[in-house]
Amino acid sequence: MAINVYFVRHGQTYLNLYNRMQGWADGPLTPKGQEDAKRVGRALAPIQFDYVFCSDLARTVSTTRFLLAEHPGNNPEPITEPAFREEFFGYFEGEDGQHFADFLGGPEGYHSFAEMVAGWGPDKLKDKIAAADNYGTAEDHVAFWKRVDKGFDRLRALPDGSEVLVVSHGATIRSIVQRYSDAYDPGDSPRNGSITKLTLDKNNTTVDFYNKLELPE
User: Fold this and answer.
1) Contact, 212 vs 196, CB < 8 A?
2) Is 59 labeled as ligand-binding?
3) 22 is in an annotated binding site
4) Whole-model pTM above 0.70?
5) pLDDT in tens, 12-40
6) End-to-end CA separation in angstroms for the chain
7) Cα–Cα distances in Å, from 185 out to 9, 102, 111?
8) CA–CA distance, 169 with 175 (Å, rounded to integer)
9) Looking at residue 188, what is its pLDDT?
10) SS3 sequence of 65-76
11) Is 74 annotated as belonging to a binding site?
12) Catalytic residues
C-alpha cells in the first residue's frame, strides 16, 4: 500500500504577475489566479480526497477554497500546515525578480531564477540566497528541509491508501521533485495551478508526474 499525494501550486498572485520575489510575503490572487484554482479543482474531479492540506499562507488558503468549490467530491475540511510554506527569501522578499537574478546570478552568467536553479540546483541556490541576506533571515537548505520534512512525516503517518491534496508553492514543489527524481529539468518551474503527483510508502518517495495542468491519462 502507499499514499498518493497531489501537490498543487497556488493560483497566480499579483506578486507573480509583477515578477516579485514571493516567499513568506503574500500577494492576493489575481482574477487569473482564481481561475487557475477553479480549473485545477475541475481537473482533479476524478480523485476523492481523504485529506486536504495547504500551507498557512493566504494565497494557498484562497487557492484551496476556490479549488474545493469546483471539486465535486465530498471533501474534508482543509488543514493548514506551515511545513508546506514557500521558501523564505528573507531580506529579498518583494524584490524585483529580474533585478535579484542579475544581482545574485549575474556574476556567473545567470539572469533569471530559472537559470540560477538550473545552474546551481535548488539547494545550492537556497544557500547562496541565505549567504547574501545580511539580516541572516533567509532559509538555507538545512532550515528549509528541516521544516518541509515535518510535513512529509505528517503525510507518511496517514493511513495506507490515502488520497491527499497538498496546496503549496512553486519553489517548494520544485525542490521536492528535485530531491526525489532526476528526471525533470530543475529550471522548469511548476505553473500556477499545476499538479504534481508523488507516491509515498514507508521507505520511498516516487515522483509520478510533474507540472501538469490536467491529470495524465
Assistant:
1) yes
2) yes
3) no
4) yes
5) 999 999 999 999 999 999 999 999 999 99
6) 22
7) 17, 21, 17
8) 10
9) 94
10) HHHHHHCCCCCC
11) no
12) 10, 86
